[in-house]
Amino acid sequence: MRAYTINAIGDRPQLTDIAVPEPAAGQVRIDIKACGLNFADLLMQSGTYQDTPPAPFTLGMEVSGVVSALGPDTKGAHIGDRVAVFGGQGGLAEHGCYDVSRLLPLPDTMDFETAAAFQIAYGTSHVALGYRARLQPGETLLVLGAAGGVGLTAVEIGKQMGATVIACARGADKLAIAQAAGADHLIDTSSADLRAEVKALGGADVVYDPVGGDLFDAAFRACKPEARILTIGFASGGVPKIPANHLLVKNISVLGFYWGGYMSFKPQVIIESLNELLAWHSQGRIKPHISHTLPLTQVADGMELFRKRKSTGKVVITI
Q1: What is the pLDDT of residues 93-131, one digit of tens each?
Q2: Using CA atoms, how far apart are residues 316 and 112, in angstroms rounded to an integer?
Q3: How far apart are CA 61 and CA 315, in angstroms?
Q4: Mind listing the pLDDT tens digit for each residue in 138-155?
Q5: pLDDT tens by residue, 178-216
Q6: Phi-psi domain of 46 (left: phi exceeds 0; alpha: psi -120 through 50; beta: other)
Q7: Burial status of residue 231 (CB atoms within 10 A of its CB: 0-12, 13-18, 19 or more)
Q8: How far apart are CA 319 and CA 33, in angstroms?
Q9: What is the 3-state secondary structure (H, E, C) of 87-106?
């Protein structure tokens, strides 16, 4: 089968032919139909992602497809089931084997491309805002990188939770996408003074930050007392240094959040969240935004969209 693999950390990934995998006990094999790209796929290539597997491995963290084989003594799935899976790797291939416990049954109303774009982006924002930050109706939510894969879902979910949403992104086109997702206020981070603009709007109760760097510093200084800052990632490449004395003076909490980590120590949080999100999707309350859909032969082009910040929402690879 074809797979987009890395032979050694730091090497350029290649589309190669490898053996079709056989499912072990408790696993299923999936005929993969689509795979969502994530910024973490870029980080894995350089070995800087916290869950980079040992090389060689196949990239692709989240997939959708059809169950085509069951491993020995595997219960809870049937051949022909339409499913999505967060596997962490192996998705940029024609087939993949996954633990049956990770299968997310798909409703008939969700196509494979949407399913491949759904789990990480929406799951991250839903658990971060609801479970970690305890966002309340009427609070002000500041979303950095608001047109990106997770940022755009934070805008949507924040509105569903009753918050006033301030969306920050670079350029009018990206801000228009955030506005269409429900943002109440827009800040162009390529030209505006983020701290001044947010303070003029009354300050932030919750900050959702997948960017880091200077934007974290500006958002930190625009927080209200008792604000909560969610550190989702560092797409800017800059990891902030947090002044603990300012945390003390303003009673601010900085909350680290890694969605995939819950799969190992509290998976029920993710399961309950995804089930609620699927219900929201079926009710029309959320609508995934996919800016680019590309074939497996153009994965490198999809990665380049991330490097140059040319994508909005999600990039999906069809198999």
Answers
A1: 999 999 999 999 999 999 999 999 999 999 999 999 999
A2: 10
A3: 12
A4: 999 999 999 999 999 999
A5: 999 999 999 999 999 999 999 999 999 999 999 999 999
A6: alpha
A7: buried
A8: 5
A9: CCCCCCECEEEEEHHHEEEC
Tell me the angle at which helices 267-282 and 119-126 cross, rounded to the nearest 10 degrees.
110
> Which pair of structure tokens corresponds to residue 302?
């999809």
**Residue 141's beta-bridge partner residues?**
165, 206
In this predicted structure, the answer to whether residue 285 has a pLDDT above a threshold of 90 is: yes
Q: Which residues pair with 203 in a beta bridge?
A: none
Asked if pLDDT for residue 157 goes beyond 90, the answer is yes
pTM, rounded to two decimals: 0.94
Q: How many CA atoms within 13 Å lie on the side-chain side of 263?
A: 17
- At residue 226, φ and ψ (nearest 5 deg) are 70, 20
d(CA 275, CA 105): 10
Tell me how far apart the alpha carbons of residues 37 and 318 are, in angstroms, rounded to a whole number: 11
CA atoms within 13 A on the CB side of 181: 32
Token pair for 304: 């380049």
Q: Which two tokens stand for residue 298?
A: 């153009």
Give the separation between CA 231 and CA 154, rounded to whole angstroms.
13
Exposure b/e, 178-206, CB count within 10 A at least 16 = b: bbebbbbbbbebeeeebbebbeebebbbb
pLDDT at 35: 98
